[in-house]
Amino acid sequence: MLLVLVFYAPAQLALIDGQTAFLALFGLCAWVARIQRSRAPAGPSGRVASGALWLLTWAWKPQLLPMPLLALVLGRAARRALLLVGLQVLALALVVVWAGPAVLERYVTLTRGAAGAYASGQTVFGIAQALGGPAVLAAAVGLLGAALVCALVARLWWGGPRANADARRLLQFASLPLAAVLLAPRAYAYELTLWLASAWLILRFVAERRGAGDRWPLLSMLALSWLAAVLITLSSGQGVPWAAYAGLGLLATLAWQYRRATCAR
Fold this sequence. Notes:
By secondary structure, this protein is an all-alpha fold. It has helices at 2-7, 9-17, 21-37, 44-58, 66-74, 78-99, 102-117, 124-131, 135-157, 168-182, 195-208, 216-234, 242-263. Helix 5 crosses helix 9 (135-157) and helix 12 (216-234) packs antiparallel against helix 13 (242-263). The chain is globular, with a radius of gyration of 18 Å. The chain starts with a helix and ends with a helix.
C-alpha cells in the first residue's frame, strides 16, 4: 500500500482529495477475488454477497457503470445486469430519502458547472476534445473511440467469463477498470486509481504464464500506462490526455494477448 501511494500519483491525489476511488477499487478487487475462489454456482446468499460487492464497486462511480453492464450482457448474465441496475436505483433512492429531493437539483447544478469548467479528462471523449477542430468532428472521434472500446470489451467477454483455471479470465476482468474509465463521460486523474485493479490482474496473468515469451508487450504497455497516469496527475490533468492514449493502447494490447492465448490453446 505504501509503495502504491509513493509511486502512483493518482492514488495520492484520490487520498488527498478524499475521493471514493479507493472504495471502488476495494469493491472491484474483493468481487474479483470472490469470483476467483468460487468453484460452484452461487446460492442465494452468494448472489447477495456478489450483488453487495458490485454495489460497493460501482455505486460510488455511476459514470463508470456502462462497461460492467456490457460485460454482464455479453456474458449472458442478464439477471446480474438487472440486479446491478436495481442496486444503483436503490442506492439513489436511499440518498434522496436521506438528503431530500433537493439533492438531485443541487447535483444537476453542480454537474452543469463542472461540465463547463472541466474537459472530459482521461477518456476517449477527452482525446476527441484534445484533438480540437469542429465540434462535429470531435464528437465523431469520440464516438469512434467509444465504439472501439466497446468492440475490444466485446471481443474479450463474448460468451461469458472463462473457467477459473483459464488464465484468460484474468484478462477479461482486467479490461473492465480500463474500459470503464475510458468510456466515462468525464474522468479526472484520481479516477485512474481504479486502474490498479487492472495492473494487479495483468501481473497475475503474467505470473501464470511465466514461460511464455510474448508477455513483454503487455508488461511494456502496463509500465507506459503507469507512467502516463503519473505524468497527467502531476500536470493537474492539463494538456494532452496521455493516460487516455496509454490506457487505450493497454486495452488493445490486452485484447491482442487474449487472442494469442486463445490460439495457443
